[in-house]
Amino acid sequence: MRICCIASSLSAGGAERVLSLLANQWARDGYGVTIVTLAATTADAYSLDSIVNRLGLDLETESRSLAKAVKNNLLKIRGLRRAITALAPDVVISFGDKVNVLTLISSIGVGVPVIISERAHPVHWDIGRIWSWLRRLMYPHTDTLVIQSEAIRDWAEVVVPKRCIRVIPNPVGRQFSANTGNTSPRRPFVLAVGRLSPEKGFDLLIQAFRSVVERHPDWSLTIIGEGSRDGELKALAHKFLPPESIRFLGTVKDPEHYYRIAGLFVLPSRFEGFPNALLEAMACGCAVLATDSPGGTSVMVRNGVNGLLVPPGDVEALARGMDRLMTDAAERARLGERALDVSIRFSIDKIAALWEDAITEVRRL
Fold first, then answer.
1. Which residue in 55, 71, 78, 125 sits closest to 97, CA to CA?
2. Which of 75, 112, 266, 356 is 20 to 30 A from residue 90's alpha carbon, by CA?
3. What is this structure's pTM?
């Protein structure tokens, strides 16, 4: 079976990591897999197995006017249609809202079943009025819509027929599973990982850490990731925190190293799809504190059992949760040990099998 996966890019990000994990697994299972991206391959941040075919269309360009945006998207549609026609796959799988729209338009009349996948929480993630209208127009033409958690089902049932909906969570990569011989002691720092964008709530984390740093002077805060709010967050940290108490590391190639040595992982998001960083930290046995934000967070974290949950947007609750766990090493150890169960619940083998079931179903239609 030939699978064509389509995404904007394979740059650093949660959806891109999931796509690379699935493509590698499917290829090892004997499927012919091609990943097509609108961006060039030079933007790739994730490694692929040598048996995965890779095609970068190099069609991602800045649109400074409506006319330019229309022209660029027409070029993307033409490029995707040519790629799909040339590859002649048995199924097309698209990752991401705008890419889903472009893929569905590109596939009109080609005769190939299409599976589209939402990678954020569409109720909270604003893609703009025109793209939202196009999504409502085109999504009913998909064979299957994959969402990451039941929290998104109500939205999905308004957009596509119920029979088209599949709930498939994200997998955790094998490199994050178990401790793989790690003997390094955990260190007194709070770790946060993700895109530096408003929905991730890093501004809330900095404010909350400000409330506890004096009580825990031996602890520091490490933030991994890049994004549009980089400068704003660094300015906020400079205003509120001693310079030695916070580090911004940008994008790193081995986040698992930090997951394995951090004393505590915090996810301060205002809303989520299905946060990979949280899943990876738990798989590495790190105690976690997360906001019970709309999305898939509560699917992973069972409050008080394998992590702690606090209300989203509540700086004081976030600070209290951090203070509690920074004070109690025994509780951190207990939660970290229980967190390891995500390696089984969301293993790549289980999640890839759910996708393969969805693929088998659309091929029968």
1. 125
2. 75
3. 0.91
